[in-house]
Amino acid sequence: MFWTSEGNQKRSRIRDFFNNVLKCGEIPRHVAFIMDGNRRFAKERQQPRAQGHESGFQKLAETLQWCFELGIYEVTVYAFSIENFKRSKEEVDGLMELTKRKVAKLMEEKDKIMEHGVCIRVLGDLTLLPPDTREAVAEVVRFSKNNTKCFLNVCLAYTSRHEIAEAVKLTAEGVELGILEPSDVTETLLDKTLYTNKSPDPDLLIRTSGETRLSDFLLWQTSHTCLIFEKALWPAFSIWDFYHAILCYQWNYTKLKTEKDKTERYKLTKELESLKQSIAHKQIQAQNKETSQVDEHEIEEAIKRKDERQQAFLSFVDERRQQILESRC
Amino acid sequence: MQLFYRFLHFLVTLIFSLLISFRYYFKLTRRKIRGVFYRTSECDIKNGVATLRSLPRHLTFIVMEKDVDLCILARLVVWSITAGISYISIQTSEGDLDKRKTEFYGEVYQIRQEMSTCDYELHFTDKDSAEQNGVNGAAHKSLRKVHVNILSYHEGKEDVTKAAQTFCTKVKNKEAQSKIMNIEHLSNLLEVNKDFPDPELAITFGPVDSICAYPPWQIRLTEFISIPSLQVMDHTLFLQTLQQYNKCEQRLGR
């Protein structure tokens, strides 16, 4: 996007031409990448591992440029998993150093970030990061948080199971503090408590290096995502692989959309039903009678109250995330 | 100019679709030809599996096409059992397998009878009926137990939501504290986890490159292998898929 301004991002005419052709079909709003294969790439070339990560980063910059040109305004990348902390200390430290360095470089181009309206978010359990890395990352997030044109989500110290468990923990905390009722905990609320609560679900997920698993990445969010596994290693990921993935997405688009809409409708009816049930249940308990007639007015009231509680809870979640980002240790 | 781009886009999409259908019909013809000359026998599966290094403990089939061919699906289940897999689950996106459960069980029993040896005990883990249908009547202790489960379409996220609600109710009643919640704790609260381990391999059938609402918690390390349709599946392709799974190497973050 903006940090590629070193010369290699001349808008190529050929690319413009292909982009224009592809734009006649559906373009995903949000694409997620699992950037796999940096180390194997380095090994094949007999380079040190760090070199592999470096070329991986360069590829990311290039790919963001491709996405931007094609009109994809939200990208999520899996930069560092909680499991990756198991790697050798040397490599982990190297990766943290790389992150810090790149962030510092990014901050030198503040005006470019603002000009393009890029909002950078970091998803994951930031408390697991070393303090100086967290500090550096927090600075960019704070700086760009009001931008709304394009979004880059970087998953750092992230795994999906951890994210889901954290979300459940937060809702339980909400109950503890009296903000939420247990019956307010619905699938929709959990959706909004995840780290990704500010983004739509990804439409397309691309994993490189031919591995065909999700490796604990966005498990919840990808239920109706088009999953494409490309053979190329990440640093060798070419624009043709990228175009192939986009074509696959276009081919899948209608079918996936129908499925997604169907599930969404089912979810909402189900949630309404369980709300009605819980009202009826309460009435029986309160009045000690068998009949469970619930009138429309009462349901409306209950929905209103529930929405208010959920809203209060979501601002609590936002506040909490803010705190973690700000906390210095 | 715009019209020109549209025309090109149409052309590209057409070629792309043609390639995909060509691949499908090629595989279908190959299966039919093989089917004419060859009848699957139990030995084929057993010999094929003997060369493999590792087998998935839990194999799951995700079927995303309309009008599921129960006969092929049942055959796949029996082959998997013959291969030595003990946990098998099936999810269909249309949800019609839920309604045709009995028909499906019948198919499985019938195909099983065609097999000569039967050294296992079959359990259908059924949510609706608590009883478990052992086939041989009296259970033999020496026999290996095989579990087959049909997942209903929306189960996965509902399960997590339910677990979250249960936990929150406990917290409200002061029976638990929110801070004890972690991955392990949530995992223990989930229904699906009770009888089944996480699937190591998922074979997806159908014209969609997606997993269509498969339970999210379970697929952390699952390998996905996609086959265009149930129709192209025969035992050779089944064995090839298992071989492909064998080549996968999990690094678990390292």
TrEMBL record, chain A:
GO cellular component terms attached to this protein's record: dehydrodolichyl diphosphate synthase complex; endoplasmic reticulum membrane
Pathway the protein acts in: Protein modification; protein glycosylation
Catalysis performed (reactions): n isopentenyl diphosphate + (2E,6E)-farnesyl diphosphate = a di-trans,poly-cis-polyprenyl diphosphate + n diphosphate
Compartments, record wording: Endoplasmic reticulum membrane
Domain of life: Eukaryota
Biological process annotations from GO: polyprenol biosynthetic process
Coiled coil: none
Cofactor(s) listed: Mg(2+)
Keyword Membrane: yes
Top-level class of the enzyme under EC nomenclature: transferase
A Pfam family hit: Prenyltransf
One GO MF term: ditrans,polycis-polyprenyl diphosphate synthase [(2E,6E)-farnesyl diphosphate specific] activity
Membrane topology summary: Peripheral membrane protein
Keyword line: Endoplasmic reticulum, Magnesium, Membrane, Transferase
Alphabetized InterPro entries for the sequence: UPP_synth-like, UPP_synth-like_CS, UPP_synth-like_sf
PROSITE patterns xref list: UPP_SYNTHASE (PS01066)
Function summary: With NUS1, forms the dehydrodolichyl diphosphate synthase (DDS) complex, an essential component of the dolichol monophosphate (Dol-P) biosynthetic machinery. Adds multiple copies of isopentenyl pyrophosphate (IPP) to farnesyl pyrophosphate (FPP) to produce dehydrodolichyl diphosphate (Dedol-PP), a precursor of dolichol which is utilized as a sugar carrier in protein glycosylation in the endoplasmic reticulum (ER).
Family: Belongs to the UPP synthase family.
HAMAP family according to UniProt: ISPT
Quaternary data: Forms an active dehydrodolichyl diphosphate synthase complex with NUS1.
Protein name: Alkyl transferase
Automatic annotation (TrEMBL), chain B:
InterPro entries: Nus1/NgBR (IPR038887), UPP_synth-like_sf (IPR036424)
GO molecular function, one term: ditrans,polycis-polyprenyl diphosphate synthase [(2E,6E)-farnesyl diphosphate specific] activity
Reaction it catalyzes: n isopentenyl diphosphate + (2E,6E)-farnesyl diphosphate = a di-trans,poly-cis-polyprenyl diphosphate + n diphosphate
E.C. designation(s): 2.5.1.87
Localisation per UniProt entry: Endoplasmic reticulum membrane
Gene3D superfamilies per record: Decaprenyl diphosphate synthase-like
Pathway info: Protein modification; protein glycosylation
Entry keyword Magnesium: yes
One annotated Gene Ontology cellular component of this protein: endoplasmic reticulum membrane
Keywords: Endoplasmic reticulum, Magnesium, Membrane, Transferase, Transmembrane, Transmembrane helix
Family per similarity comment: Belongs to the UPP synthase family.
Protein name (record): ditrans,polycis-polyprenyl diphosphate synthase [(2E,6E)-farnesyldiphosphate specific]
